[in-house]
Amino acid sequence: MFPLSHMLRSFVRIGTLKVIDADGRTQVFAGTPGPSVTMRLTDRSLYRKLFLNPELHAGEAYMDGRMRFEDSTLRDFPTLFSINRLSLGSYPLQKLLRAVSRGLKRLQQANRVDQARKNVAHHYDLGNDFYKQFLDEGMNYSCAYFLSDDETLEQAQKNKHRLIAAKLDLKPGLRLLDIGSGWGDLALYLATLENVDVTGVTLSKEQYTLSNEKARRLGLSNRVRFHLRDYRDIDERFDRVVSVGMFEHVGVHHYAEFFANMKALTNDDALMLCR
């Protein structure tokens, strides 16, 4: 199972990882007492792929069944990985690969306005019917907030909206900007809670069209409007700015630019929520 076995000996410092390889042989990698996971690999190519990029290829191998867990659950493996991840980062080859990756991030995460439009179109303009297959009724694309195990996805998304609204401290007459407004559910929800004026911006034509349709359907077009526009092209000022699930697209080298724009877009006593 070389070279994967060599890396796993250095990786597992806490807990036990039993690996059943493609030939049915079992190898045990153990450290101090901790969680125990049994993994079965059915494809020999994973010995090299997991060695070179474990975070990418582990997910792909699990999805297509080439990596399975026996006498343990999928949840057990991320737990074992999490408590040992620092030792993976110190493994010589992984350390080198991560250094190269950091050096390439400026190119990989280029976020010019024209490039951002292309990226968004490639991902979000696949058609709203596609996203309706797995999103909640409001088509919220960011993580939900489950207060209990038996809550539905719809309820968990409403929980998230309520929490965001409470943090924004909405008051009548305030102007609110939603950056990366998606299919509009959050912006419309906030407008139903308080008499605020809401502007949402997205680079997705599909999201833009559906969001404005929702606003018209709810009779909120006079206070909620959505624009097909990059946040960097806005020259107005707002009392509240909210951005949910969009910051991950900004790119590490554009963080300073992002927050400089936020300062330019907000009044002196404004609040901003970004997650």
Describe this structure as you would to a colleague.
The protein has about 280 residues and is of the alpha/beta class. The chain has 2 domains: about 5-105, Nonspecific Lipid-transfer Protein, Chain A (2-Layer Sandwich); about 125-275, 3-Layer(aba) Sandwich (Rossmann fold). The chain contains 11 helices and 9 strands. It has helices at about 5-10, 45-50, 55-65, 75-90, 90-110, 115-125, 130, 155-170, 185-195, 205-215, 255-265, and strands spanning about 15-20, 25-30, 30-40, 65-70, 175-180, 195-200, 225-230, 240-245, 265-275. The strands form 2 sheets. The protein has a 5-stranded parallel beta sheet with strand order 7-6-5-8-9. Strands 2-1-3-4 form a 4-stranded mixed beta sheet. Helix 1 packs across helix 4 and helix 2 packs across helix 3. The mean pLDDT is about 90.
List keywords for this structure.
4-stranded mixed β-sheet; 45% helix; Nonspecific Lipid-transfer Protein, Chain A; 275 residues; 5-stranded parallel β-sheet; 11 helices; alpha/beta; Rossmann fold
Could you say how many structural domains there are in total?
2
How many helical elements? 11
Helices and strands, in N-to-C order? HEEEHHEHHHHHEHEHEEHE
Structural class label: alpha/beta
Classify the oligomer.
single chain
Can you tell me the CATH topology of the largest domain?
Rossmann fold
Q: Largest sheet, order of strands side by side?
A: 7-6-5-8-9
CATH class of the largest domain: Alpha Beta
